[in-house]
Amino acid sequence: MNLAEAETNTEYVIKEIKTDDEELKKFLFTLGCYEGETVTLISILAENYVINVKDSRYSIDKNLAEAIII
Asked: Which pLDDT tens digit goes with each residue over 27-62?
């Protein structure tokens, strides 16, 4: 299951970042999204997913949310 399919206000553990795009992987890593880290989907507004990682909130698009496997 990926983060785009997740329920809001539920904490998940990231199993992997599934993408062939190295820039995308590096960007998610700078946000703190990597294997073993917890992530919470706060809300979905249009195609933007508001997530909470390491006590910080970020807004990511659907492509990024689909790359995060939980």
From this structure: 999 999 989 999 999 999 988 999 999 999 999 999
In angstroms, the CA 54 to CA 46 distance is 24
Question: Which element (helix H / strand E) includes 69?
Answer: strand 68-69
Using H for helix, E for strand and C for coil, what is the string for 9-60? Answer: CCEEECCEECCCCHHHHHHHHHHCCCCCCEEEEEEEECCEEEEEECCEEEEE
Say if CB 69 and CB 16 are below 8 A apart: yes
pLDDT score, position 58:
95
What's the farthest any 2 CA atoms get from each other in the chain? Answer: 29
